Amino acid sequence: MKILIADKLPERYIQQLQDKNLEVIFKPTLGENDLSEAAKDVDILIVRSTKVNEQTINNAQKLNLIIRAGAGYNNIDIKTANKKGVSVANCPGKNSIAVAELAIGLMISLDRKIPDNVSDFRKGIWNKAKYAKAKGLFGKTLAIVGFGHIGKEVAIRALAMGMKVFARDIIPINMEGVIVFEDLSKMLPKADLITLHLPSTPETRGMFNDKLFGYMKEGAFLINTSRPDVIDEDALITAVKEKDIHAALDVFIDEPEYKQGEVHSKLQELENVYLTHHIGASTQQAQDAVAQEVVKIITELLNTNKVLHLVNNPNK
After folding, report:
1. pLDDT tens column, 23-44
2. Which three-class secondary structure state does DSSP give residue 224?
3. For a 10 Å CB count at each end of the chain, is N or C smaller?
């Protein structure tokens, strides 16, 4: 059995696969346009954020399983995988702690303007008067939109920091200290911070638009570590300029697929918007947890011919 790993995976887990007498090809720098050729004769393809498009799946002669080394799988063409009879599996919940840590870090960064502090210092600028005006997060009202694995981890940390935590999801919420809300139009005017932990679906795409930004209180913080298209970026830009909304984003529209190079975005010139490099899951703890689950999925397939965490309907 031949396996292609097209994104980063810790070396010791690659060795665990090789110890099972599997042929492992490790090419972490492959991009979307490289996969069609690279995956044409492999049995299993493992990716993180690299897109697996229709051409890659149709060109693959032996492919029977694609593993998304993470939770979301919108980078994989599920429709084509179904038609071709290719199973798709993910690793749910393994990135939750890492993403939650980043979300909390972004909240603190917005409040204390940490990136601006550091930037000024590196320029030789000392401006304590400007930066000694943080509000602090203790006692602030946090609205968590999307209360899956990550939302729950954010809530645990926010409660420990003394925030008032409200949450909303399509499934029932039951966590001590967390107050459930349903109506965003009633919650947003009260929230000091809003953090988004949503999948990309027809219901969530463009969810945060002019209407919802209109409900937000002036000067509120918005954090998005989930999917870029849940926010209408033009509406965000207007809200930043007109309502002093502060935003911290780990994802954005037209984010580069490549690991290093130039980047261009309408958000770059906005003083109150911080962007990180889609690094929510990029901690050693998360990488190890995901890699361990990848090995578990492959081991289960070898032993029982069953696919753990199957997310599609192959042959349909």
Report:
1. 999 999 998 999 999 999 999 9
2. strand
3. C
pTM of the model: 0.87
Residue-wise pLDDT tens digits, 217-250: 999 999 999 999 999 999 999 999 999 999 999 9
What number of other Cβ atoms are within 10 A of residue 273's Cβ?
22
Nearest to 85 by CA among 316, 303, 281: 316
**How many CB atoms within 10 Å of residue 62?**
12
Quickly count: other Cβ atoms within 10 Å of residue 264's Cβ. Answer: 8
Which pair of tokens denotes residue 94? 């393994």
Structure tokens at 163: 């925030």
N-terminal to C-terminal alpha carbon distance within the chain: 25
**Which residues are annotated as catalytic?**
227, 255, 278
Mean local confidence (pLDDT), 193-200: 95
Q: Are 61 and 214 in contact (CB under 8 A)?
A: no
Tokens matching residue 211: 């209407």
User: How many whole angstroms from its chain centre is CA 252?
Assistant: 11
Cα–chain center distance at 72: 8
